Amino acid sequence: MGDSRQIDAKDPYTKGHSSRVSRYAQKTATQLGWDTERIKDLGFAALLHDIGSNMLKDRILVRMADDVAGFDDKEEDPKNEI
Hints:
5 helices; elongated; 2 domains; mainly alpha
């Protein structure tokens, strides 16, 4: 599936991770006696399970770079005023 390859491609360490998670999840569900449609849905969900982590990693990296540069957006955010 193209989407899971894009998710995994962002970080070489995770290459193929989503496919492996999908396979293991489907094998486990089969052993648990789940019906075919539910197993298929689980496999699809497993392929997409890391979809948000790539965005989070970018945010964390940007935040870390800002902190290293001495910028603290909490001080400038009016929502953080007491």
